[in-house]
Design goal:
4 strands, four-stranded antiparallel sheet, alpha+beta, 7 helices, single chain, binds magnesium ion, Alpha-Beta Plaits, binds uridine-5'-diphosphate
Length: 139
């Protein structure tokens, strides 16, 4: 059965352009409940760790630089079928390919600066949530 939680970040471009509130409103309107939330900034070491799964990809160096370039908002979200429903809500990685009305279509600047992160599996939702929040069993 699909899990009930996913993990998201509002990325530096969306924080910089003052879209935290608008993005959280979309998330709430789509039926997600915020279980944990943190405004913080990654340094390049922690951004590199978070995206370690992509370290062989050509965009990794730039991605780490971008994700440590400014503050982010990290959050754990709850909803039935959370991972898949959240991926639907944010749209494709490349905002040019994201469906109209999705968060990336509305707020992303580029394939790199694409406004939000969303976990791609139940297992990664727990790993990524644990990266920012301790005592996850509380949630
Ligand atoms: N990314 C990039 N160039 C690419 C693909 C991805 O800069 O060609 C960045 C982008 O910020 C993306 C992140 O790397 O959100 C992680 O990539 P992934 O393929 O996991 O996309 P996502 O799951 O975020 O849609
Ligand atoms: Mg991904």
């Amino acid at each position: 059965m699909a899990g009930k939680v996913t993990f998201t970040m509002i990325k530096p471009d969306a924080v910089e352009s003052n879209n935290i509130g608008a993005i959280l409103q979309k998330i709430n309107e789509a039926g997600f409940r915020i279980l944990a939330m943190k405004y913080t900034k990654l340094n390049s070491e922690s951004a590199g760790q978070f995206y370690a799964v992509h370290k062989e990809r050509p965009f990794y160096g730039d991605l780490v630089k971008y994700m440590s370039s400014g503050p982010i908002v990290a959050a754990i979200l709850e909803k039935d079928n959370a991972v898949a429903d959240f991926r639907d809500l944010i749209g494709a990685t490349d905002p040019a390919k994201a469906a109209p009305g999705t968060i990336r279509a509305l707020f992303a600047k580029s394939i790199e600066a694409n406004a939000v992160h969303g976990s791609d599996s139940d297992e990664n939702a727990l790993i990524e949530g644990s990266f920012f929040f301790s005592q996850l069993e509380r949630f």
